[in-house]
Amino acid sequence: MDDTGKYLPEIYRSFRSRFADVVERHDAVAGAVEAAGPLDDHTLRLVKLGIAVGAQSEGAVRSNVRKALDVGVTREAIEQVILLGLTTRGFPATVAAWQWASEVWSNREDQ
Fold first, then answer.
1. Which of 19, 77, 81, 88 is deepest in the core (most CB within 10 A)?
2. Is 15 in a helix, a strand, or coil?
3. Predicted confidence pLDDT, tens digits, the chain (111 residues)
4. What are the structural domain ranges in the chain?
């Protein structure tokens, strides 16, 4: 398992193992979707983070914060995307996303 695998919940790893063929095809679709347009890696990561904040998906927020940092997106840009959720998704969802992102940053600083 690569370094990112340590962040994946056991149930997700189990699902990937049990349905490897389905997951491989899903990953291929995800790659094709990301390659289908002109957006660069930074923009893709920030858009996907915004979608995750809007969905109030803890796992997706954490994952997309990690992926954004991995492609060089600044903490300030990530913070702005989370703050943009305030007027659309609401204060509680924004604070929750902030907490999840803060935990990712904290874990990165501990390493």
1. 81
2. helix
3. 344 556 778 998 999 999 999 999 999 999 999 999 999 999 999 999 999 999 999 999 999 999 999 999 999 999 999 999 999 999 999 999 999 999 999 988 765
4. 1-37, 38-111
